[in-house]
Amino acid sequence: MTHIGEWAEKYRPGSLSEIVGNKKAVENLQEWAQKWTYTIPEKRAVILAGRAGIGKTSAAHALANDFGWEIIELNASDKRTADAVERVAGSASKMHSLDGSTSRRLIILDEADNLHGSSDRGGTRAIGNIIKRTKQPIVLIANDLYGISSTVRSNSLEIKFNSIQSRSMVPALKKICREEGIMCGVGVLEKIAENADGDLRSAVNDLQAVSMGRDEIYIEDIATSQRDTQGSIFKVLPKIFKGTDPKKAYEATYSLDESPEDLVHWIDENLLYQYSGKEGIVNEDIKNGYGYLARADLYLGRVKKRQNYRLWRYAGMLMTGGIAISRTQQKGGFVRYQPPSLWRRLGQLKAKRNLRDNLSVKIAAHCHESTRYSRSNLIPVYRQLLKDDNYSVDSAVNLDLSVDEILYLTGGRTVTKKIQKIHELAQDRIRETISHDIEFYTSPRKGSASANKGLEEFAASSDPGSSSSTIDSNDATDGNDNNRPESEKSKGSSEKKGKPQRTLFDF
Ligand SMILES: Nc1ncnc2c1ncn2[C@@H]1O[C@H](COP(=O)(O)OP(=O)(O)OP(=O)(O)O)[C@@H](O)[C@H]1O
Predict the structure, then answer these.
(1) Quick one: which atom of ligand 1 is closest to the CA of 60?
(2) Of 57, 111, 166, which is best to mutate to test ligand 1, by the most ligand atoms within 8 angstroms of its C-beta?
(3) 194: CA distance to ligand 1 center in Å?
(4) For the chain, domain boundaries
(5) H runs (alpha helix) in 307-337
(6) Yes or no: is domain 22-160 CATH 3.40.50.720?
(7) In principle, which of 7, 125, 258, 417 could form an S-S bond with 262, CB 3.0–4.6 Å?
């Protein structure tokens, strides 16, 4: 039995030349990959960003096929990913095939926009660091560019994938029909492509659904109902802003999957641009339009207060028909519709709050204070420290700060060279300390009982839950052994003679 989605997989492009649309994006991707064949390019990762179903994942796979690269596909939001990428990303120099030629592995990180703001800040940081020094090409796939941290974005080549035009989809759908032996009536594929609203995967799925159990399909077989995709708001807005019939403007919202509360934000965001055009002149139409919007907003407030949803109808009429009759001047030219900036600002605020909360936890742990105290009293102290050149790197080392966290503490808007420098110096120092510790604990020592402990044992010994730890866990508490029995104290001191002792610095 077949299931929907099977054709989309079966007809996934095998080569970049088969990718429909997004010619420029494909060219940029190819150019970037070409650089990897003889050197390591400055931007070692690319971000393929765009809405679902337009060929981002397919392009990454096709690229690997075209260049003969092995694929390692990981889900970016999986906590284990950072380790896995770390292992693969550093191993390029060993990737020689038997005939002596080098071949690469393409690391594909799906859902890269899911990392940001998640509790797994460590993963974001690790990936941010890895893409700076990877020896293997990395492709990050994301629906929302803004969901990716600024560090990752600034170190990657951003390639945007756009919705696919319906006329470009038709040949691809035709090819599938030919292969599957389906005969299509006039306008069938055009209709399917139009309904898909730029999403080729949906078009292929719709074609499969309508073809099930048939070898001929006609226009009547295609459901005429509009898709409830996000894109449909872009079909309703012109009827509100460009129409002259208030009834039609209101009726256009029937098929919309947005509440009047959301719709009012869309209209509010776009009214000024639509009615003032590119000249940006405020005119009577704009004033009247905002008058209707204000009244619609009044009704929306009453709906909330009284929980009387019948009032939505009045709000809806005012914000659609009211706007339509406000327009007296004919406006030429195309002005793109913008999603409400308020939503974006709220999203940014949330991301900022997450960052602040994570930072409070870090500082609280470092200073042995409560998170609340850390948030209200210690973050301001660290703000000052980060601004002072004498303490900025030390603070970044102590807290193992990410670039985003340094940016937050310094209060800047963008990641500057100075911020990057602080981060790099701090990371170098952290790495130095770690390698120093490893060397210290693993190098043979005269007269030591634990003289030839290997790296693995050192790692095990630093795990507080490990019973095989070679270092007395009491040493790690506070150095005060007053509460220990006498016998243990002397045992401890005799051990200390022969064993490297941990200091507070090590923690
Ligand atoms: N540009 C395209 N060219 C050819 N086929 C495409 C294209 N876009 C989508 N398809 C078809 O849709 C299927 C899904 O596409 P793909 O997985 O590449 O989309 P995506 O943009 O990565 O979506 P998501 O963000 O959901 O992962 C493919 O297997 C292929 O059949």
Answers:
(1) 18
(2) 57
(3) 17
(4) 22-160, 166-221, 232-338, 343-440, 443-506
(5) 312-326
(6) no
(7) 258
pLDDT in tens, 360-417: 999 999 998 888 888 888 999 999 999 889 999 999 999 999 988 999 898 887 888 8
Measured in angstroms, how far is the CA atom of residue 353 from the centroid of ligand 1? 34
- CB contact at 8 A, 176 and 7: yes
Asked if the model's pLDDT at residue 92 lies above 60, the reply is no
CA 319 distance to own-chain centroid: 34
Phi-psi region at 216: left, alpha or beta (left = phi > 0; alpha = psi -120 to 50): beta
Count CB atoms within 10 A of the CB of residue 301: 12
109 three-class SS: strand
76 Cβ contact partners less than 8 Å away, ≥ 6 residues apart: 109, 110, 111, 112, 114, 115, 123, 127, 140
19 lines ligand 1 (CB under 6 A): yes
Whole-angstrom CA distances from 55 to 89, 205, 271, 391, 487 are: 25, 14, 33, 47, 70
Between CA 416 and CA 238 the distance in angstroms is: 41
Domain topology for 166-221: Helicase, Ruva Protein; domain 3 (1.10.8)
Closest residue by Cα to atom 17, ligand 1, is: 57
Helix (H/G/I), strand (E/B), else coil: 54: coil
Instruction: Return the SS3 of 465.
Output: coil
Least confident window among 51-65, 299-313, 416-430 = 299-313
